[in-house]
Design a protein that fits this description.
By secondary structure, this protein is an alpha+beta fold. The protein is built from five helices and five strands, in the order H-H-H-E-H-E-E-E-E-H. The protein has a five-stranded antiparallel sheet with strand order 1-2-3-4-5. Helix 1 packs parallel to helix 5.
């Protein structure tokens, strides 16, 4: 299955089972995706692009409480860099890293690298020191599936 097809399968599972409490996900227009693309220097891989096309504006209560959907996704890289600097974390986001989620200003997830379905790393300031980003999913589509499964299990 391609990365795009894996994203489509996760979105279908949210909508078909009404786990997202919405019958219609909000996809983004090409212009909105372009704004996200230009907000950070990192490339948008195929899987993340498909996510934005299908549900980049949200889908019910899925990932509610986190800045992951448009327009809240704009500016996340700067917020993540500010959080790292504030906590004096000796980590710099690479030019190919794309921040895709921030939660309550203390935790963020980012795609590492420029592949079609890159690995996901998480930084969370509440973990014991020294705090550094850790691998939270081997690829974006696994990260998405995990969040969707957690969301469905709380319904």
């Amino acid at each position: 299955m391609s990365p795009e097809e894996r994203v489509e399968a996760v979105v279908a599972s949210l909508v078909d089972q009404r786990a997202a409490s919405a019958s219609t996900p909000i996809g983004l227009s090409p212009g909105e995706i372009e704004a996200i693309e230009y907000d950070q220097t990192a490339p948008i891989g195929a899987a993340y692009r498909r996510f934005l096309e299908l549900v980049g504006g949200g889908v019910g209560t899925f990932l509610q409480g986190s800045d992951v959907f448009h327009p809240l996704v704009l500016g996340l890289r700067q917020a993540a860099e500010d959080l790292l600097a504030e906590n004096k974390v000796p980590v710099t986001l690479a030019p190919t890293d794309r921040v895709i989620l921030m939660h309550q200003g203390y935790c963020f997830d980012f795609l590492q690298g420029s592949g079609p379905d890159p690995v996901v790393l998480t930084y969370n300031e509440i973990y014991h020191h020294p705090v550094t980003p850790f691998r939270s999913a081997p690829r974006f589509t696994d990260w998405l599936r995990t969040h969707a499964d957690q969301h469905r299990s709380t319904k």
